[in-house]
Amino acid sequence: MPELPEVETIRRSLVSVEGARITRVQGRCVQLRQPLTTEDLRPALGQRIVGSSRRGKYLLLHLLDGAGLLFHFGMSGTLLVRAQAEPRREHDHLVLELEQGTSLVFHDPRRFGLVRFVANAEEPSEFAQLGPDAWCDPYDAEYLFAQSRHRRLAVKAWLMDQRVIAGLGNIYASEALFRAGIRPGRQARRLSRSECARLHWAIRTTLAEAITAGGSSISDFLDAQGRPGYFQHRFQVYERERQPCLHCGSPIRRRVLAGRSTYYCPRCQQ
DNA sequence: ACACGATCCTGACTGC
DNA sequence: TGCAGTCAGGATCGTG
User: Fold this and answer.
1) Chain A 213-232 residues in 7 Å CB range of strand B
2) Distance CA A57, CA A228 (A)
């Protein structure tokens, strides 16, 4: 589910819990990407949530003493603000009860996500591997050009490498490449400077539009307040195999790159 | 060093 | 209706 626009949408929908104190930590020991135990989260108990930030697809809740709670949503994770009276559902792995009578719930059926207490919210170790944030960090076309030299893999797989830029996943990599007019299967090292400039522009505008739309709700994405996103109605190629290209009318093609479905227009993307 | 496939897990959907 | 197979928004590990 959540790529950068969805994580940013979740983050923005969490303003209602800012300032709240965590009064109870409930959860089962469950195998996520790492094992999750409530014991690990005990230091967050009694702490006040003072804000949130995002880096790539990671969300960080900042606590008053400088610590934080780090979340990654994998394929199916979400954070939900719910009334404490509401019953717990299957796959609710972590419930943080807040003093205002609400709970912050981490829900993740496929369990590819991550929840971790970090003593210093300034620089969790996971961030060291990440490239610049695809949306809000200042990288430029020249950076993309330099990073792509000597990389033989498909440009679409390269864009999804979080060490290059952080935040693009399968949907937005396809969508950005369509807007840039670049074929997803081309080797990254074959990109020209001007193509990197188009790609840079395409990434920024695609993400900006998606964030404005509240992300993409394909089957089940909702923000923390339970609202869906609308960007799925603006997909130009993703999940549009055999439908006409919105620009030239050619049928959109699907192919598998690095194990992931990839969509493109054979005419508009060269 | 690099690129790829397999893997973790559940749920929704398709076709027999 | 039931069952097997396929596919899904991600990241990591081992391998060749």
Assistant:
1) 219
2) 18
